Amino acid sequence: MTTPPPLSPLEVQRYSRHLLLPQFGLQAQKRLKAARVLCIGAGGLGSPAALYLAAAGVGTLGIVDFDEVDLSNLQRQVLHRTDDVGTPKTESAARALRALNPEVTVRTHSLRLSSANALELFAQYDLVLDGSDSFATRYLVNDAAVLSGVPFVSASVFRFEGQVSVFGVAGAPCYRCLYPEPPPAHLSPSCGEGGVLGAVTGVIGTVQATEAIKVVTGTGEPLVGRLLVFDALEMRFRELRFQRDADCAACSERKTIAALGDYEDFCGVKPPVVPLISPSQLAAKLKAGEKVQLVDVREPLEREINGIRESLAIPLGELEARLSELDPQLETVMICKVGDRSASAVRLAQRFGLTRVSNLEGGLEAWLDEVDDDQFRY
After folding, report:
1. Looking at the predicted structure, is the pLDDT value of residue 348 above 70?
2. Coil, helix or strand for 110?
3. CB neighbour list of residue 221: distance below 8 Å, 6 or more residues apart
């Protein structure tokens, strides 16, 4: 971090409520002004975190995102507005943050974080906030942060729950100390597949911003070696303590990770290729009257929103126990929202002997784009 710069008269006025805090004061605000913080993602977590960091006076705020604003984002991604739908999230985020606090330098990185760019990117910042929703990115962030010597605040949300911790501080545990191995890919759906209460991302993203401010300014006790878990249904916070793993592959003396690798392969999200059928091909078969067995492996709540009427409803978690309901002689097409869970369903069916089985390419999202655009989306 660079030498703390002085505050202008306008900044003194803007941050006066910080300056009045006995545990914070002028020096902490100067350290905040000198800080360079990188937010991975301008989504549900990145939105509240970035807004509060900009409001607090972080000197340089970087935003990494490769996506565009979608209408379904607006229930939780409060950086963006309805008029921003279809625009890059980095562009929308920068506009909102600069309007909130023109004293902050906002840098945009319109790219997908990868092993090829993470180390170079992290070297430009003092602290990283990980607001991604995939395990592959979380392990990438951890390893890049450890190799770069940059601390990071990690958070995740799912449905009505969230969790936050601080990693990468010298001598402290890293993310791999807490989670040495990722869960199976089919057991870790994203918010787009499993849903999330929008306000939960606000709670957790704000905690992330608070921890970032504490780490940058040296204020209070950050969540190092502590995992804060939030349950919105019970409105309860609880804390889990964990230690540094003496055999950690990333941060121990016995570490084996000296460079960034293939995190999609490590997390099992790059499985063997399965047979695909496009929405237009499936539509042509159905129109021609061919007998095709359609299996929708989404959850019941998702099926209430949309679906293909002719499909059989078997959630992925029940598929193995209900495979006997399928006719192995018929051509079978597995269906989910975007094609991930249905790909797992195809592989499961193949292991149990079904040979005429394929995956609807792009899932129902693609079906609605190409065949049936009259249904609701989620």
Report:
1. yes
2. coil
3. 214
| Other Cβ atoms within 10 Å of 378 Cβ, number | 13
Three-class secondary structure of residue 98 per DSSP: helix
Pairing between strand 152-158 and 357-360?
unpaired
Radius of gyration, alpha carbons of the chain:
23
Work out the average pLDDT over 223-234: 97
The residue ranges of DSSP E strands in the chain, in sequence order, are 36-40, 60-64, 105-109, 127-130, 152-158, 161-167, 226-231, 236-241, 276-277, 292-296, 312-313, 331-335, 357-360
Q: Name 276's Cβ contacts closer than 8 Å, sequence gap at least 6.
A: 358, 359, 360, 361
Check: CB of residue 122 under 8 Å from CB of residue 38: yes
CA distance 152 to 39: 10
39, 174, 191, 251: which one is catalytic? 191
Q: How far apart are CA 126 and CA 74, in angstroms?
A: 30
Residues 189 and 191: their CA atoms lie apart, in Å, by: 7
Angle between helices 198-217 and 46-56 (to 10 degrees): 40
**Model confidence over 350-362: pLDDT tens digits?**
988 889 999 999 9
For the chain, domain boundaries: 35-266, 276-370
Q: Which CATH superfamily is domain 276-370 in?
A: Rhodanese-like domain (3.40.250.10)
pLDDT range class, residue 375, cuts 50, 70, 90:
confident
pTM of the model: 0.76
What SS3 state is found at 85? coil
Residue type, 218: G
Distance CA 44, CA 20 (A): 31
Label residue 333 left, alpha or beta by phi (over 0 means left) and psi (-120 to 50 means alpha): beta
**Does the structural domain 35-266 have CATH classification 3.40.50.2000?**
no
Contacts of 134 (CB under 8 A, 6+ apart): 190, 267, 269
Residue 267 annotated in active site: no
336 is catalytic: yes
Check 177, 248, 251, 336 and give the catalytic one: 336
In this structure, what token pair is assigned to residue 174? 């890293």
Reported as a single tens digit per residue, the pLDDT across 54-86 is: 999 999 999 999 999 999 899 999 999 999 999
